[in-house]
Write a structure and sequence with these properties.
Layout (H helix, E strand, L loop, with lengths): L5 H9 L5 H25 L4 H8 L3 H9 L6 H10 L16
């Protein structure tokens, strides 16, 4: 069975890694994973959005926005959220290859 890999499909529809359209897709995928993890941990800790908001000093609507469609989340807000959820977040910095 000849199939197409996910990477091949992404390249066909969004371009090669490093192109603006592909970079936007990859960022959106990462944000979706992050949003889902926040939601999962909040529920695992038996917290409502309002309760998590109270713990980090924001309104429930802000937590809802973060979980559902946030495009940009500050590192400070992420740290507050994961601290409130008794979780640790790790960041890595990887230098992109030089583009010719």
């Amino acid at each position: 069975m000849n199939g197409i890999t996910l990477d091949e499909l992404k390249e066909k529809n969004y371009g090669a890694i490093g192109t603006p359209k592909r970079d936007a897709l990859e960022q959106e995928i990462k944000m979706e994973v992050l949003r889902e993890e926040i939601k999962r941990l909040r529920k695992e800790n038996n917290l409502t959005q309002a309760q998590l908001g109270d713990l980090i000093g924001v309104q429930r609507a802000h937590i809802s926005k973060l979980e559902n469609n946030a495009k940009n989340i500050t590192i400070g807000t992420l740290m507050k959220i994961f601290n409130a959820l008794d979780a640790q977040i790790n960041f890595s910095v990887v230098r992109k290859m030089n583009r010719a």
